[in-house]
Amino acid sequence: MQIIKNESIDQIKTRIRQQTSKTIDPIVASRVENIIATVREKGDAALKAYAQEFDGVTLNELKVSAAQIDLAVKNVAPEVIKALEKAAANIRSFHQLEIQQAFEDSPRPGVIRGTKITPLSAVGIYVPGGTAAYPSSVLMNALPAKIAGVQHIIMVTPPQKEGLNDAVLAAARIAGIDSIYQVGGAQAIAALAYGTESIPQVDKITGPGNAYVATAKRAVYGQVAIDMIAGPSEIGILADDSARAKDIAADLLSQAEHDKNARAILITNSEKLAQAVSDEVNVQLKTLPREDIARDAIDNNGFIYLVETIDDMIDLMNAVAPEHLEIQLENAYDYIDKIQNAGSVFLGKYASEPLGDYLAGPNHILPTGGTARFSSALGVWDFQKRIQYLSYSQDALLDDADDVTVLAREEGLAGHARAIEVRQS
Ligand SMILES: NC(=O)c1ccc[n+]([C@@H]2O[C@H](COP(=O)([O-])OP(=O)(O)OC[C@H]3O[C@@H](n4cnc5c(N)ncnc54)[C@H](O)[C@@H]3O)[C@@H](O)[C@H]2O)c1
Ligand SMILES: N[C@H](CO)Cc1c[nH]c[nH+]1
Ligand SMILES: [Zn+2]
Fold first, then answer.
1. Residue 378 Cα: closest atom of ligand 1
2. Res 156 pLDDT > 80
3. pLDDT digits (tens, 9 = 90+) for 370-384
4. Which residues contact 415 (CB under 8 A, 6 or more apart)?
5. Domains along the chain?
6. Is the CB of 364 inside a 6 Å radius of any atom of ligand 2?
7. Distance 123 CA to ligand 3 centre (A)
8. Candidates 54, 140, 182, 206: which one to mutate for ligand 1, based on the most atoms within 8 Å of Cβ?
9. Annotated binding-site residue? 258
10. 379: CA distance to ligand 3 center in Å?
11. Which of 9, 101, 291, 344 is deepest in the core (most CB within 10 A)?
């Protein structure tokens, strides 16, 4: 990993901004635009042609049958089912806490103001599956939607040469999802946004994916809602001399192995640790089955920044706004208040990132590419809408009428004023 030292904080921030802006690739954007237009024009036929082109799969049916799901569940090892069920229980118990509450008040007699909460009606959940299968992403996507009360949950995931991954289908069964379509990439996002002969149009698309998926979600926003830009995985680690190079290297590589575009960043005030982590990453890389992917990620987007103080470290990490942030400093828990930008934070040397990926309960669908500056983890809130309402008695209207008409005339909107005035007599 490249060690960057002897640079000012401003110089490093400029580098970070440049690296973050790399996440929008114009070549990918133009391919995605083309795919979306083709799906809109040709529907299912385009989805089947792309399955052939990008996934090498000939599909007759896009929809997965109940019998296929039954069979898959039987094929999954009992210890995997047990772990998925434990994960599901933790994800449910954590996300139950996110349910938004309706509220109502009456500021004076005759006036009632409130906000009611309704679930979205139809959502599309994207479960990645290009270079790995993600049963964990089924649970992370579907369970918050279920808790919110969404009626129609449509799951899409890329077709596989050897048939869809059994554990992905088993996770869907555990989450109570039975509407599953074999379609991935930008074409899946286009199908959910515009609908095809077999895939229903939805109100919102959630879930993570590679650069094609993330770029397509950005492109269809407005036609449908999206949760966030949850693209190639990232990890940022803040560590001092109290941390172990072995742990840090392993955690950096845990995210690098997801995608050649993944990002892995260490910020430290210890030169000794910086060098030890750089060496250890090289050693551990060679032992990973996905070495080629992880190596590309480390070569392209793996950086160690060496700075003077812990305050500088935190300041820079807030500029990175990583998807996952690990704090491996002494008394790590004390630093949570200083973190402004991160998708999810892991405090202390035992809170290793994969705990969050799989089991602990917080969501692993998280903003990437610096978008944690303004986006949050996927949650029940993503599947709920708020509708405000108002009720007025005649007396209450008469009390407020003059002030409303004054403001309406100030804006030159006599029609607004009249709607109030006709009720004054
Ligand atoms: N941010 C998060 O919350 C989060 C969570 C889990 C996973 N992830 C990320 O999800 C991603 C999963 O990626 P993946 O590739 O394994 O699966 P994926 O399902 O995201 O993408 C696979 C699809 O990409 C399309 N594709 C691939 N190459 C293409 C090309 N040249 N042109 C057009 N389309 C192409 C194909 O349709 C293929 O089916 C990784 O980047 C991982 O880091 C992110
Ligand atoms: N780290 C990923 C989010 O960036 C989530 C994941 C799923 N499986 C393993 N990891
Ligand atoms: Zn992961």
1. 3
2. yes
3. 999 999 999 999 999
4. none
5. 2-23+232-361 (3.40.50.1980), 26-228 (3.40.50.1980), 393-425 (no CATH)
6. yes
7. 24
8. 54
9. yes
10. 18
11. 344
Segment 332-354 mean pLDDT? 97
Output the pLDDT for position 19.
84
Question: Residues 234, 323, 326, 353: which is the catalytic one?
Answer: 323
Q: What's the Rg (C-alpha) of the chain?
A: 25
Look at the block and give the residue holding tokens 């910020």.
Answer: 267
C-alpha of residue 211 to centroid of ligand 3, in Å: 16
Gap between the Cα atoms of 241 and 229, Å rounded: 34
CA dist., res. 38 & res. 16, Å (int): 36
**% of the chain beyond a pLDDT of 90:** 96
Residue type for position 72: A
| Residue 231 backbone phi and psi in degrees, to 5 | -95, -155
152 classed as catalytic: no
Alpha-carbon gap, residue 275 to 158, rounded angstroms:
40
Any alpha helices (H) in 223-336, and if so which ranges? 245-256, 271-285, 291-301, 310-320
Residue nearest to atom 5 of ligand 2 (CA): 357
Q: Give yes or no for residue 181 CB within 6 A of ligand 2.
A: no
330 is catalytic: no
Residue 216 is predicted with a pLDDT of: 97
Expressed in angstroms and rounded, the spacing between residue 310 Cα and the centre of ligand 1 is 35
Tell me the average pLDDT across 313-326: 97
Tokens 């208040």 sit at which residue?
Answer: 337
As given in the structure block, the two tokens for residue 321 are 């706004």
Residues 220-241, buried b or exposed e (16+ Cβ, 10 A)? beeebbbbbbbbbbbbbbbbee
Q: How many CB atoms lie within 10 A of CB 290?
A: 17
Is pTM beyond 0.90? Reply is yes
Quote the pLDDT of residue 24: 73
Each residue's pLDDT tens digit, 185-217? 999 999 999 999 999 999 999 999 999 999 999
Q: Which one of 98, 234, 324, 364 is the catalytic residue?
A: 324
pLDDT of residue 23: 64
Q: Is the pLDDT confidence value at 21 over 90? A: no
